[in-house]
Specification:
About 30% of the residues lie in helices and about 25% in strands. The chain has about 240 residues and is α/β, with parallel strands linked by helices. It has a six-stranded mixed β-sheet with strand order 5-6-7-3-8-9, with helices on both faces. The termini are far apart. The relative contact order is 0.18.
Length: about 240
């Protein structure tokens, strides 16, 4: 029996979490988190290091153990085989082979996913590095290789864990422009960052601290509720209010 098609309609959230908790050893990484990620939008998952962002993204991707509560992705349980071709996941740690070239990496992962490369190299700005070994690339270029792999097959839900960390301001701006284009084409993006200023690039925000969801709102609502346009200060005011 073939797997049912995932759902992405206005009536079905791309991600739905109800009372989700995760304990990792002695650490309570997530504490009774509930939210919904609307389809076809760019949602920022923001909070300081250690707030639970990576754990939450792994749970949504279906690779996190010991997840309690109810979590659905495109209408189904995370990790279901039929969902894999509809998800793109970029972890913080590099998922590429350093002894292969950029093109060899993409061809390898494209074969696994049954996808075509199309214009991916151009889209992530790696055409000039096509035949370079990954180990000779800069950190920003390696990040773009990982992003290209996540984009293989035009996934409907993209989970990007700190994709802009350590990158120069120009490259960060270029990537956020690409993320906006992908959302405009109908993809749902959940992008984590510990840099609060990046909230300005998002349509919706999930703000985490110590494994708890502080708020789910838009950037404009965050400014209105905290009476400041400084995103770091806005986050602090939310903490103080909580």
């Amino acid at each position: 029996m073939s797997e049912p098609e995932p759902k992405w309609t206005v009536a079905v959230p791309a991600v739905s979490a109800r009372d989700v908790s995760v304990r990792r050893g002695e650490i309570q990484a997530l504490r009774h988190v509930s939210f919904e990620v609307p389809p076809g939008r760019l949602t920022g998952l923001l909070g300081p290091s250690g707030s639970g962002k990576s754990t939450l993204i792994r749970a949504i991707a279906g690779v996190q153990a010991a997840v309690e509560g109810r979590l659905t992705v495109l209408g189904f349980e995370p990790g279901r085989a039929g969902l894999r071709r509809w998800l793109g996941y970029m972890a913080q740690s590099s998922s590429v082979y350093e002894d292969l070239t950029v093109l060899e990496n993409l061809r390898y992962f494209a074969e696994i996913r049954g996808a075509q490369l199309g214009g991916l190299l151009e889209r992530v700005g790696l055409r000039e590095q096509t035949h370079q070994l990954v180990r000779r690339l800069s950190g920003g270029q390696r990040a773009r290789v990982s992003l290209a792999i996540a984009l293989l097959g035009s996934p409907r839900l993209l989970l990007l864990d700190e994709p802009t960390v350590g990158l120069d301001p120009l490259l960060r701006r270029e990537l956020w422009r690409l993320f906006g284009e992908l959302a405009g084409e109908g993809a749902t993006l959940l992008i984590s960052s510990h840099v609060m200023e990046e909230a300005r690039h998002c349509e919706d925000l999930l703000l985490l601290r110590d494994g708890r969801l502080l708020a789910q709102l838009t950037p404009d609502e965050l400014v209105a509720q905290t009476s400041t346009t400084d995103m770091d200060e806005a986050f602090v005011r939310l903490i103080e209010r909580a």
